[in-house]
User: Which sequence fits this backbone?
C-alpha cells in the first residue's frame, strides 16, 4: 500500500506518496525526477547514489525511503547557487577528476559530507571516505588532487565567513 | 613546433554540467508516454526452450504487454548476422533475453516478470573455447556458416568455430630451422567486464508514422540506425538515434548490444517510447564481456638474440554470438608479435562459440591479451640467452624500415619504441635496488608495446563546421564522448586549425543521427587521429569559402589572400583586408546585395589505404601505430602474498600531446584498468555457465586505496595521419601492466606466471611450492 511521507529536499518540503518497499534513490530519481543522483549498482558498492541525509553522506540505494521521513536531504542539485559552484564542485571540475562524470555527483556529495563537518579532515580520513566510491576512468589520482584542492577552498571560504 | 591552443590543458566543456548533476545520461531521459521494460533471463546457459507461459504475467498490475521471441526471424550483426533480439528456440548463455514485460513502471514490470513460466531442455555447456572445439561438442549454432558474414571471414560449418584467421609471413618452418633457441608458453587472459559505472540502457520508440526514434548509451549510433532500418524494412533516414552523455564505455558499448532487444520489445507497443536500463547484474550477464583469449606462442631466435620466427595459436572464447568477438580475435592475432620484427610468422586466431555472454571490445581490443604472451616470452628468452632484456628487445624492435607481420613497413613517423624503453630503464633500473628485506621481496619488470587501431574499410569520421555571424564557431561531429574528453580535443584542434580561440568554439553536446555528420563508430583510439584530420580538412574548406568571398570583396584572386582568424587580407599589403564577421554569411554590399557563400563546411577522414586482408592474412590492416613501454617497481608481502605496485611508469610516443591534463588522466585510468586485470579482476563461471560474481562487491575493480603511484612520459615524434602529428592513446595504457607486473613478479620471487589475475593466494601457493622445492 502506498504511504504518504514528507522530507526536506534541497531546502524545500516535499510530500510524496510512495511504495514503502522503495529505496530513497528511486524516490529521488523516479518520483521526484531529480536525476543528478546516479544509480551504478543496487547494493551500496559504487557510491554514485550518495546524498546527504541529516548532514551525513549516505548511500541512497540501500536506504529504505521510510528512513527519510522527516529528514533533511541534500542532493547534487542543491549545492550550487545559480552559476556559483560550491567550492568542492569547482575543485573537482578543474582537477581532471571528471571524465565520464557518472561517479562525480556521488564523490562531490561524499566530500561535502566530510568537509562541511570536518574542514580539517586528515588525509587518511579523506582516503577512507573516497574509498567508498568506484571510478573506472581516472585511476583516482585526479580525484585525490581535486579533494585536496576542495579542502583548501572550503577552508578559505570558512575563513572568509568568519571575517 | 609550437602551437597556440594545442598542448595546453583546457578544462573540458562538459565538466560543469557533470559536477552539478545536470549532465544527461540515458536513464535521466524522461519522455511523454514512456513505458518501462524488464527482461527475463534463463536458468540455463544452453538449453532448448520447450514452452513459455505468459498468461499469469499478463494479468499483473500495470502490465501493458508481455513479449517473447516466438516467431522472431530477425538476425543482425555488423560482421556476422548471428544475433537475435530475443531467444527463439534455444538459449545460448545465461544472460540471454527470453521474454520481457512492458509496464507503467520498472517496478511493476519486474514484479510481473516473476510470473512468466519457462520450461527448458538443458544442453551441454562450454565456457572455454577448447571445450567447445572438442570433437564431440554439441553445436551452439547449427546455422554456423549459413549466417550472412563479411566476405573476409571463414566460419567452419559443423563446428563451433565461428572464424579462423590465418596470417602467414615468410615460412615459419624455415624460420624455426634457423633458430638456435626456441621458447614457448601458454597464456590466458580470462573473461572480464568493462564494468563502466553507468550500466547499459536504451529507449526505443516505434512511431505511428513508421519511423523509429531511439536513445542509447552507445558509441555507434550510425551502425544501430543502419541495423534497425534493415531489420524493420524502413529507410535508414527514418531511423533516428540520439546519444546522450555516456557514463564510461571502455569498449563494451560499441557494436550493437542491447538496442535490438529493446527495439523488438518496443515494436509490440507502437506509439510508446520503451525504456530499459540494465541492473548492475545484467550489465555483467547480458551485455558484452571482454578478453577470454588463450594464446599458445612459440618464438625462435639466433644465439645473438636476433628473432627469426613466431608461431601462435589464439583460442578466443567468443561467447554465444561471435559478431562482436571476431574482430577482437583478428586484432589479437596480427598484433601478437608486439613491437618486434619476425621474418617468419605463422599466426592463427580461432573465434569460438561458447556459452557465455558474447565477447566484444574491451579497451585494448586484443592487444593486451596476446602481447601479454610475447612480452613474457621476451623476458624468458633473454634469461635463456643470458642476454640483457633491453638489448634483446632493441635488437628486434620495429624501428624505421622494419616490416611487421602484416607486411607493413615502419617509418620514422610511426614513432620510436626504443626511446620509450630508454625512459623505462632510466626511471626504474638506474637506481639502488634491494631484493629482499624482512617483510617483502622486491622486483622490477617492464614491457614494450605496439597498438594498431582496428579499422574497417568504411571507418570514417565526419566534421561539420559552421562559422557564425560573429566569427564564433559551432562544431558538430559523430564522435561519442564517453569520458575520454574528445569534446575538449575537438575544441582545441578546431581552434588551432581556424585560428579561433577555443572559448569562441562550441562543440556538440549529444549525437543525433539526423543532424550529426556520419561516423562509423568511436573506437580503436582513433578519434583524435581521424576525427582530428576531418577537422583539419573541414577547416581548410571553410577558410577557402572565406577567401572566395573576400576575393570578390577585395577585387583580387584567392591565392593572393591570407587568413589569420580575424581578417582575410592581401598578402602583399595586409592593410587591404576584410574582417571575418563581415564575410561569414556572405558579404553584404552597401546596396544590400549579398555575394559569396555562408562560411560552413563538411569533411571526413579515414585511415589512408586501409584494406581487407589478402589470402595470407596480410595487408594494410593497421596503418597507424603507436609504440610505448611500461614498467613496474613492485613489492610482494611475504606474509600475505600481496603485490604492491610502488611505481608504475608509462611512456608512449603519441606524436603530439593535445591536452596534457587529459592525456595524463587517460593513462592514469588505463593503467589502473590494466592493473585491475592483472591483480584482481576475473569473471568466474561455474560448469553450468552461471556467472558467480556479477556484482561490484564480488568483481573487484581497483579502489581508491589500491591506486598506484604513477610516472608518465610522452615522446612526440609527429605522425602523418593525425592533426598536428597526434596519434591515438585511449586504449594503450592497458596493454603493458600484465606483462610488466608478471615480469616484475619473476624478478622478485623467481616464479613465472602465465595467467592473470595473480592473486595473493596464488603467490602464497607459489612461495610455498618454492620453499618445498628448496628444502627437498
Assistant:
Amino acid at each position: 500500500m502506498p504511504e504518504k511521507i514528507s522530507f526536506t529536499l534541497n531546502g524545500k518540503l516535499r510530500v510524496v506518496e510512495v511504495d514503502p518497499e522503495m529505496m530513497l534513490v528511486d524516490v529521488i530519481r523516479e518520483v521526484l525526477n531529480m536525476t543528478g543522483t546516479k544509480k551504478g549498482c543496487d547494493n551500496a558498492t559504487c557510491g554514485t547514489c550518495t546524498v546527504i541525509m541529516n548532514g551525513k553522506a549516505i548511500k541512497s540505494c540501500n536506504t529504505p525511503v521510510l528512513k527519510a521521513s522527516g529528514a533533511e536531504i541534500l542532493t547534487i542539485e542543491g549545492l550550487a547557487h545559480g552559476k556559483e559552484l560550491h567550492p568542492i564542485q569547482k575543485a573537482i571540475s578543474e582537477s581532471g577528476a571528471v571524465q565520464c562524470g557518472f561517479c562525480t555527483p556521488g564523490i562531490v556529495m561524499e566530500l561535502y559530507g566530510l568537509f562541511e563537518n570536518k574542514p580539517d579532515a586528515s588525509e587518511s580520513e579523506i582516503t577512507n571516505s573516497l574509498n567508498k566510491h568506484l571510478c573506472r576512468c581516472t585511476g583516482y589520482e585526479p580525484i585525490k588532487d581535486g579533494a585536496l584542492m576542495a579542502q583548501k577552498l572550503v577552508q578559505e571560504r570558512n575563513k572568509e565567513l568568519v571575517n | 613546433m609550437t602551437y597556440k591552443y594545442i598542448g595546453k590543458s583546457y578544462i573540458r566543456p562538459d565538466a560543469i554540467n557533470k559536477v552539478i548533476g545536470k549532465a544527461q545520461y540515458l536513464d535521466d531521459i524522461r519522455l511523454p508516454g514512456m513505458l518501462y521494460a524488464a527482461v527475463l533471463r534463463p536458468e540455463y546457459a544452453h538449453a532448448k526452450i520447450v514452452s513459455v507461459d505468459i498468461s499469469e504475467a499478463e494479468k499483473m498490475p500495470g502490465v501493458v504487454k508481455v513479449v517473447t521471441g516466438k516467431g522472431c526471424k530477425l538476425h543482425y550483426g555488423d560482421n556476422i548476422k548471428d544475433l537475435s533480439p530475443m531467444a527463439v528456440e534455444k538459449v545460448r548463455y545465461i544472460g540471454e533475453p527470453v521474454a520481457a514485460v512492458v509496464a507503467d513502471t520498472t517496478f511493476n514490470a519486474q514484479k510481473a516478470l516473476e510470473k512468466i513460466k519457462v520450461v527448458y531442455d538443458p544442453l551441454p555447456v562450454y565456457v572455454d573455447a577448447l571445450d567447445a572445439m572438442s570433437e564431440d561438442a554439441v553445436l551452439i549454432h547449427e546455422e554456423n556458416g549459413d549466417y550472412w558474414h563479411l566476405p573476409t571471414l571463414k566460419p567452419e560449418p559443423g563446428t563451433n568455430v565461428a572464424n579462423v584467421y590465418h596470417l602467414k609471413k615468410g615460412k615459419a618452418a624455415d624460420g624455426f630451422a634457423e633458430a638456435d633457441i626456441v621458447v614457448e608458453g601458454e597464456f590466458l587472459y580470462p573473461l572480464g567486464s568493462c564494468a563502466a559505472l553507468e550500466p547499459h540502457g536504451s529507449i526505443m520508440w516505434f512511431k505511428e508514422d513508421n519511423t523509429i526514434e531511439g536513445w542509447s548509451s552507445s558509441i555507434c549510433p550510425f551502425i544501430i540506425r543502419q541495423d534497425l532500418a534493415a531489420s524493420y524494412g524502413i529507410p535508414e533516414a527514418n531511423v533516428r538515434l540520439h546519444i546522450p552523455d555516456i557514463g564510461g564505455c571502455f569498449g563494451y558499448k560499441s557494436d550493437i548490444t542491447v538496442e535490438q532487444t529493446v527495439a523488438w520489445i518496443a515494436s509490440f507497443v507502437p506509439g510508446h517510447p520503451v525504456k530499459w536500463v540494465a541492473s548492475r547484474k545484467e550489465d555483467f550477464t547480458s551485455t558484452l564481456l571482454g578478453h577470454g583469449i588463450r594464446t599458445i606462442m612459440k618464438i625462435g631466435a639466433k644465439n645473438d638474440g636476433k628473432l627469426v620466427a613466431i608461431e601462435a595459436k589464439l583460442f578466443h572464447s567468443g561467447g554465444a554470438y561471435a559478431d562482436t568477438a571476431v574482430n577482437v580475435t583478428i586484432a589479437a592475432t596480427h598484433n601478437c608479435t608486439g613491437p618486434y620484427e619476425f621474418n617468419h610468422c605463422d599466426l592463427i586466431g580461432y573465434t569460438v562459440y561458447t556459452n557465455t555472454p558474447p565477447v566484444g571490445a574491451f579497451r585494448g581490443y586484443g592487444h593486451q591479451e596476446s602481447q601479454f604472451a610475447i612480452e613474457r616470452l621476451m623476458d624468458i628468452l633473454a634469461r635463456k640467452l643470458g642476454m640483457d632484456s633491453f638489448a634483446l628487445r632493441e635488437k628486434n624492435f620495429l624501428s624505421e624500415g622494419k616490416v611487421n607481420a602484416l607486411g607493413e613497413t615502419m617509418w620514422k613517423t610511426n614513432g620510436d619504441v626504443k626511446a620509450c624503453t630508454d625512459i623505462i630503464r632510466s626511471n626504474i633500473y638506474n637506481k639502488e635496488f634491494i631484493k629482499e628485506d624482512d617483510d617483502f621481496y622486491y622486483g622490477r619488470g617492464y614491457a614494450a608495446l605496439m597498438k594498431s587501431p582496428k579499422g574497417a574499410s568504411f571507418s570514417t569520421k565526419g566534421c561539420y563546421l559552421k562559422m557564425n555571424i560573429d566569427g564564433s564557431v559551432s562544431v558538430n561531429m559523430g564522435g561519442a564522448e564517453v569520458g575520454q574528453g574528445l569534446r575538449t580535443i575537438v575544441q582545441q584542434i578546431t581552434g588551432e586549425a581556424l585560428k579561433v580561440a577555443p572559448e569562441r568554439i562550441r562543440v556538440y553536446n549529444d549525437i543525433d543521427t539526423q543532424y550529426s555528420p556520419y561516423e562509423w563508430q568511436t573506437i580503436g583510439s582513433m578519434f583524435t587521429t581521424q576525427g582530428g584530420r576531418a577537422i583539419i580538412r573541414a577547416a581548410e574548406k571553410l577558410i577557402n569559402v572565406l577567401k572566395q568571398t573576400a576575393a570578390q570583396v577585395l577585387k583580387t584572386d584567392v591565392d593572393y589572400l591570407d587568413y589569420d582568424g580575424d581578417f582575410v587580407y592581401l598578402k602583399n599589403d595586409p592593410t587591404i583586408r576584410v574582417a571575418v564577421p563581415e564575410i561569414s554569411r556572405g558579404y553584404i554590399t552597401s546596396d544590400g546585395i549579398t555575394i559569396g557563400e555562408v562560411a560552413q563546411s563538411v569533411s571526413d577522414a579515414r585511415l589512408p589505404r586501409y584494406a581487407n586482408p589478402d589470402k595470407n592474412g596480410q595487408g594494410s590492416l593497421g596503418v597507424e601505430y603507436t609504440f610505448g613501454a611500461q614498467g613496474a617497481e613492485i613489492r610482494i608481502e611475504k606474509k600475505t602474498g600481496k603485490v604492491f605496485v610502488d611505481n608504475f611508469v608509462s611512456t608512449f610516443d603519441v606524436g603530439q600531446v593535445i591536452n596534457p591534463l587529459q592525456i595524463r588522466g587517460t593513462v592514469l585510468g588505463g593503467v589502473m584498468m590494466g592493473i585491475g586485470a592483472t591483480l584482481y579482476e576475473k569473471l568466474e563461471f561455474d560448469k553450468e555457465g552461471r556467472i558467480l560474481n556479477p556484482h561490484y562487491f564480488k568483481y573487484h575493480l581497483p579502489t581508491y586505496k589500491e591506486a598506484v603511484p604513477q610516472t608518465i612520459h610522452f615522446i612526440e615524434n609527429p605522425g602523418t595521419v593525425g592533426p598536428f602529428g597526434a596519434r591515438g592513446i585511449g586504449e594503450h595504457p592497458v596493454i603493458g601492466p600484465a606483462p610488466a607486473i608478471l615480469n616484475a613478479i619473476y624478478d622478485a620471487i623467481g616464479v613465472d606466471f602465465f595467467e592473470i589475475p595473480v592473486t595473493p593466494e596464488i603467490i602464497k601457493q607459489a612461495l610455498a611450492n618454492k620453499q618445498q622445492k628448496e628444502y627437498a
